[in-house]
Design brief:
By secondary structure, the chain is mainly α. Helix content is 53%, strand content 6%. A hairpin with a 6-residue loop joins strand 1 and strand 2. Helix 3 crosses helix 5. The longest helix has 26 residues.
Length: 305
């Protein structure tokens, strides 16, 4: 279900939401994609789609298809290489764009991810850039798994409202934020363990929200642990572990909570439930939720056009 847009200059096939060609950097003038259209919104959160979600389960076979669809967003067939800066910048172009944080929005961050863009702090040491890119790319791929799952379940193409819905879903509560942050740290640690400096931002979230339910935190971490395996599966098509022959003890024991992996059925059931319940919220409150997604749409437009 990954529609493409063809570059007029080099004729490469790009993701439907791309604005620059991944191959030659030519502008794709993809303005039609980046606009608010309430008709698309109401069609997405229609009674028909709500009934589809109620009737069609997410299966392990369909989930495998979703992961492979994400791999295939990058049309280049490559031999996995070590994650140097040039390698990373090349392989991630079909997924996200990397640029410096010229507005200095988060001066205390080495990097951050926002609306299909990875931003690097200009003061980030060059030897930390690869691990920073992988960390933020993992955020994007977690988000992409949600988008592609919605697209698969509803048999629809990607559009701006699906992107904004997925963005809302990953930020709607602290437990999903915890899962998301664990995924990024775990993937970063897996590929470049010697440059990994701990689960710092995740631990900060936990410390800043000490009133959260312990069991729900453990569930969120376990869900994140399971999704991190899928993000690693995607990235291993393109990059290799650094020093993968050396023994490494994960630093996730510093988080302070037990972390278990869901089995496949538990994982896809959890993902389906998150999507279903959030979709139902929008379906039942379409008029009230429209301004929220329009606001996210505007952020996608701002960052990408």
């Amino acid at each position: 279900m990954n529609s493409t847009i063809e570059c007029r200059k080099c004729h490469s096939k790009n993701s439907i939401n791309a604005t620059l060609c991944y191959n030659c950097d030519e502008s794709l003038q993809n303005y039609n994609y980046y606009k608010n259209d309430f008709k698309v919104y109401y069609k997405l959160f229609s009674k028909e789609n709500m009934e589809i979600l109620e009737k069609i389960p997410l299966t392990d076979t369909s989930y495998d298809t979703i992961l492979n669809n994400i791999v295939n967003i990058n049309p280049e067939i490559t031999i996995p290489a070590y994650p140097t800066i040039p390698v990373l910048l090349k392989i991630i172009k079909p997924y996200v764009r990397v640029q410096y944080d010229s507005e200095n929005k988060h001066p205390n961050f080495l990097s951050f991810y926002s609306f299909n863009k990875i931003f690097l702090n200009r003061t980030t040491p060059s030897n930390m850039i690869p691990s920073s890119i992988i960390h933020e790319l993992a955020h994007h791929l977690f988000n992409e798994i949600i988008k592609q799952t919605i697209m698969h379940l509803l048999n629809t193409e990607k559009n701006l409202y699906i992107e904004s819905f997925a963005w809302y879903l990953t930020l709607q509560n602290k437990y999903l934020e915890i899962a998301n942050e664990y995924v990024s740290h775990k993937v970063q640690e897996y590929f470049i363990p010697e440059k990994f400096n701990g689960y710092t931002s995740l631990i900060k979230i936990l410390m800043d929200n000490d009133d959260l339910d312990t069991k729900k935190i453990e569930t969120a971490l376990s869900f994140g642990s399971s999704i991190s395996d899928d993000v690693i599966f995607i990235l291993e098509h393109f990059i290799k572990q650094v020093n993968n022959n050396m023994p490494h003890i994960s630093q996730d024991n510093t988080i302070g909570y037990p972390i278990y992996k869901f089995n496949t059925q538990q994982k896809i059931d959890a993902l389906y439930t998150i999507i279903y319940k959030t979709f139902e919220l929008f379906y039942k409150n379409k008029k009230d939720m429209l301004p929220l997604l329009d606001q996210f749409n505007q952020s996608y437009i701002y960052y990408n056009i």
